[in-house]
Amino acid sequence: MIRVLLAEDQAMVRGALAALLGMEPDIEVAGTAADGEQAWREIQHLRPDVLVTDIEMPGLTGLELAQRIARHALPVKVVIVTTFARAGFLRRALEAGVAGYLLKDAPAEGLVQALRTVHRGGRAIAPELALEAWAETDPLNDRERQVLRLAGEGRSTADIAAQLNLSQGTVRNYLSEAIGKLGVGNRIEAYRLARQRGLL
After folding, report:
1. 108/19 same-domain check
2. Do both 123 and 192 map to the same domain?
3. Whole domain around residue 154: which residue ranges?
4. The whole model's pTM is what?
5. Is there a single domain that holds both residue 66 and residue 94?
6. Sheet harboring 100-103: ordered strands across?
């Protein structure tokens, strides 16, 4: 039996996925979570075999969950199901140790098959993304990405510095580096381009 935890902030999608997977004889939906922090608590409590998660969620993103699972060496495979058909997201997911990356508009049986493949130790990647995943390089490092994401949410330099325990000068340096690497004029343009390219 493959024990699955579903992490998805849209209640209708979460319910549909749970119903779909619940019909399979070898899959048990052990629990669900509406945001990343709740998913992290459920992972520790339920110890599922596979986490099925979206990328964009309140609290922790699906990628941050995957990184945390890897950091704690938990025996939980991660499958991302998302609308983000961008090579940048897939590349970062693979770097975070994700075993599956599927698109929400794929056929439902694809997810079921992916869970079985991942549970056996394999990988399940949306074929339309697999080839281009490594074609485009990612110029940003993790800290630049973190600072740029907060700046794009409208946070001030002082807010970002306080949240990340950095000096304001260091935050400005990270933003300046990100702006330069992306070849744009300011932090808002940098945020938009990074989002468009799947770098955030």
Report:
1. yes
2. no
3. 142-196
4. 0.69
5. yes
6. 27-33, 2-7, 50-53, 77-82, 100-103, 124-125
Instruction: Name the nearest CA neighbour of 3 among 20, 24, 22, 27.
Output: 27
Count of all residues that appear for the chain in the document: 200
Q: Is 59 left (phi over 0), alpha (psi -120 to 50) or beta?
A: left
Q: Does 23 lie in the same domain as 121?
A: yes
Give pLDDT tens digits for 57-74. Answer: 888 899 999 999 999 999
**Count of domains in the chain?**
2
Handedness of CA 196, 183, 137, 177 (dihedral sign): negative
Whether 10 is in a domain gets the answer yes
Alpha carbon distance 127, 64 (integer Å): 23
Tell me whether residue 44 is in a domain: yes
What amino acid is encoded at 149 in this protein?
A: R
**What region, left, alpha or beta, does residue 133 occupy, with left being phi > 0 and alpha being psi -120 to 50 degrees?**
alpha
For tokens 């459920």, the residue is 42
Residues forming beta bridges with residue 100, ordered by sequence position: 79, 124
